[in-house]
Amino acid sequence: MFGWLDYGARYIVENILNMSMDTAIGSSVHFFIYDSLKIVILLSIMIFSISYIRSYFPPEKTKKILERYSGVSGNIMASLLGTVTPFCSCSSVPIFIGFIEAGVPLGVTLSFLITSPIVNEAAFAVLLASFGWQIAMIYVVSGVIIGVVGGLIIGKLGMENQVEEYVYSIRSRARKIKELTQKERLKFAYDSTRDIVKRVWLYILIGIGIGAIIHGYAPEEVLAKYAGPENPLAVIFATIIAVPLYSNALGTIPIAEALIGKGVGIGTALAFMMATTALSFPEAVLLRKVIKPKLIAVFFGITSIAIVITGYLFNILL
């Protein structure tokens, strides 16, 4: 699909920069040029397409949809909606309050909050560019499953008393859902694409830069030994170190691509990527405004275990 782009990147490296592809520096520069262009192209296409779909699911409509579902179907629907409504962690508090205020069960609300940061159209586009359809779809499905299972468990634990009391007392006025014209939807998709690319381009370049260094210089035998699928603790270690390294998912995917190229297990790399976005200190601080420490600990614990299990399954099956 991107053979022409690979050829162009090689031409730049060998003929314009006068570097050999057989050297570490030449290989690293090629990785950086090729991945940067590839990711930006696919990212723009996917964000525009999914943003157009997302124009049909504003927060108010998402809330109304979830009000109609209960039980397992509610958790499934919440996780599915989380994949097309990518909210950053800074939006978690008002979304949480809005869902609880509308009567959406706690477990269903948390299914949405787990899946939404893990799965989004931008990360899907980068994974598609880096690993192909199979890994990209497995990423989406696993993110939905993690959200569903996590929300179900939290719902069964009956931890509604761990939500701050003031959240239940809030009664906001229902906002009218505006129906957009096709022109407005296209403008929404264009504006979303421009806004997201503007916000994440630095994360992408930093991630690609780190990935390029790993691709060109990191010793394969060392990485394969300590972070390869044969190391039983690799997935756990990757998940733990990801928590304090809060970053946009897009910045971690090129790193994951380079690590996998060096022999690191696919499950280990993806566990690192998922944990970086779903588990972070900033999100814990924000969530503390609406839920108590016990529920935060359960939320993080269940999500961590689910990510670790998913990582091991990827390493076994792929």
Describe, in plain words, how this protein is organized in 3D.
- The structure is a single chain.
- The chain is an all-alpha fold.
- It has one domain (about 5-165, about 190-315).
- Helices cover about 75% and strands about 0% of the residues.
- It has 16 helices and no strands.
- It has helices at about 5-15, 25-55, 60-65, 70-85, 90-100, 105-120, 120-130, 135-155, 165-170, 180-215, 220-225, 235-240, 250-260, 265-280, 280-285, 295-315.
- α1 (about 5-15) runs antiparallel to α2, α10 runs parallel beside α13 and α12 (about 235-240) crosses α16.
- The radius of gyration is 21 Å and the shape is globular.
- It starts with a helix and ends with a helix.
- The mean pLDDT is about 80.
